[in-house]
Amino acid sequence: MRPQSPIFNHPSLLLFEKCKSLKTLKQIHGHMITTGLILHTFPLSRLLLHSSLPPISSTLGLSYATSIFHQITYPPSIFLYNTLISALASQNHTHEALSLYTRVLCDQTLWPNNFTYPSLFKACGAHPSWLVHGRALHAHVLKFLGPTSDHFVLSSLLHFYSRCGKLALSRHLFHQIQNPDLGAWNSIMCAYAHVSTGADTSSIEALLLFNQMLHSLARPNEITLVSLISACADLGALSQGAWAHAYVDRHDLRLNRFVGTALIDMYARCGRADMANQVFDALPRKDTLCYNAMIRALAVHGHGQRAVGLFDQMTHENVTVDNITILAVMCACAHVGWVDEGRRYFDSMKEAYGIEPKIEHYGCLVDLLGRAGRLSEAMDIVRKMPMKPNAVLWRSLLGACRTHDHLELGEHALTHLIQLEPENSGSYVLLSNMYANINRWDDVRRVRKVMKDKGVQKMPGCSFIEMDGAIHEFMMGDRAHPCTVEIYAMLDEMGKKLHACGYRPCTMDVLFDIDEEEKEGAVSYHSEKIAIAFGLLASESGATIRIIKNLRVCRDCHATTKLVSQIYGREIIVRDRIRFHHFRGGTCSCLDYW
Description:
By secondary structure, this protein is mainly α. It has a domain at 463-588. The chain has 29 helices and 6 strands. It has a 6-stranded mixed sheet, covered by helices on one side. Strand 3, helix 29 (555-567) and strand 4 (572-575) form a beta-alpha-beta unit. The longest helix is centred in the last third of the chain and has 17 residues, at 484-500.
């Protein structure tokens, strides 16, 4: 074996271990100049590296390192370039790191290698404004390295694309990594978490992926669990989410603010605001994230008074209030019809908390006023707000117009919505509902023709129910389930019992000019009714039934579910696109205000 160069073991290099300040670093630099160590690549790389490590890693430290690099009297090697690029990228100096990388490309004697790219991908994935540069770097990897199997390059690419929400690419890269480590597993789990915006197959794949991870050499940590719990929240998979919570406890993982916030959100979105509150109370340290999650949980479950009380506790304990906090407490007011209180929180943002209202806050204010039927005030807010209204805001206004039968303003809102989101079917459906309510079937047909001409497809309603750890999906009139015969027999039984209690179908939301009997048949087989029938069949007597619906619950299903909860003595919890509805004993937690 060739003896190691004395440069690598030079006593002066031990001084770096005791270096705690920029002043000391400069003294070591001077010593390296006098001893000639500065002329050797390895000692020089140690000097550049330590400038990026705490406690020296300040702007001055990095500036000093950059100045050292530019004063090198011989052509720097790719090793030195990589060292400084990594130092700059690790301190979020992405622009400077990319500029240095550009110098590498301009030098005909240098060639980027496997160590050049990982830190650059990490830096580009840290902020949305740099994502486009990361995609260009991927092209450079293929150009300079070819189809690489290097673990670090593949892992950094995987992490970058997971930050971009590019699930297919992330999955492709993950499968190229042999024996993925914890970082790779966390990156692919995060990729699923970023794209999971509802109960869909991506969330289910995340659960399957976690199961594969348990059979690998990698052991999950808190970051893994946050991604898993988020997937359970999207699916409304309470049993899997509770299992993840138990996993945290069994394996002594820290119930830190990130895991705690994810658990609060999961339990809330699975219909268990009580469990969310237990997690919140158990957290040893509660920061803004935790309070925001709990206030939001109380808001969507209709516990307005408790949400406001928690906000007061938050301010009393001097926990920082941010724009999301204000949004959550305003939403809590909107769900219970506290218009004046919600306006008061909006008006206090700037003066009391130094927070400039964003478009989300104006949207919540419009929703607050619209739900209460104060449409002229809502429209006045839209006219006077300092930024251009977005589609969410116009859709809130249109929904309020549909609830309160304000056709003229609804048509005005739809005009703006079509300009912003011409392919969103929900806006057309809301207006069609308004026309159908007053029997203007020619206008209903006109709207449907516009949808057809523009190629706009109505989003089908679907409902999900978890039973014994399995997720069951139902569409309107669905007959694909293995238990279809039993489900429809239960639907018939439900119908007879409902009519015996005086129930009459509410057909206002049927968008077809057909006779009343046909309309009654149409509303009888909505997806949530099929899910409820399955829940009654598949669960034990008295067990709570939990359902997730991708659209807003219709008036007939809302009225039906109230009666079903009374007839069968069941609590039925429905999470729709807007909020939670807790049906119990013939009433709903929303008090018919949704």
